[in-house]
Amino acid sequence: MERKGKWTPGLWVDDGHDGKHTIIVNSKWGEVARVAYIGCYKQQHANARLVAAAPELADALEHAVNWGIGFAKKTGERPTWLDSAIAALMAAGVEV
Question: Which of 11, 17, 25, 91 has a beta carbon 3.0–4.6 Å from 33's, enabling a disulfide?
């Protein structure tokens, strides 16, 4: 399946703090995001991991949406999660 997202491709990683209060998320092409400290280091690291996982999450959701659309066409039954999954992809700029 062709990647539809327009974001930086590939693996994104939480590269840790920049020496201040910001966590850097990088790809092999360079920095893609900075995650600010908002009063709790645990939450900041969780936010950074979520940002770093975004490309893989979007790819998995795209596969699920394609499956759901195929299922709906084949059976006439639309999965209850399909509309919210499509909306999430569209919010990320993916045309469905």
Answer: 25
